[in-house]
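The pair is quoted verbatim below.
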Amino acid sequence: MIDTSFYRWLRPLLRRRRRGLRAPEEFRPRGTSSKISRLSARYDAEVDAALERLWPKARVYHDREFTRDRADFLLVVRGRGVMIETKVKSDPGLFRGSTLPPLLDRLQRDGRRLVVLLNQGDPTPARELVAAKLGDKARVIVWSGPADDAALCEAVESLLKQATRHA
């Protein structure tokens, strides 16, 4: 038997969302479902602002798609490019860089330069991993805000001096 009650068909469309009801997981914006994702989005915005502040005439390209083998930013200064990868830790412990190998393998093939920015923690194990793959073409630094701008500027400028012209 066919239900002819239009009210039953229209009720979901006409119903107002009640406070306290949560949207199903597939309707939530990507990247906001965990504490780390929210911290990461905020950290990326802070890094973007720092890049604009330190190199106002530079072009900053963002990779909006989440992939493990591409960096989050490409900074092009005076025609030379440096890839920038951001990593967020919720605790101040060691950063081992376990998520970096796909990116490092790709950059090793492409010959690109890389700066890995870490929000907190000890980056010593990650520095060893990055140095083994990319040598002097990469830096791993802790950048937690404008107070660390000098370290970021020094790392990027040292890589720009050795980088080949970016097409």
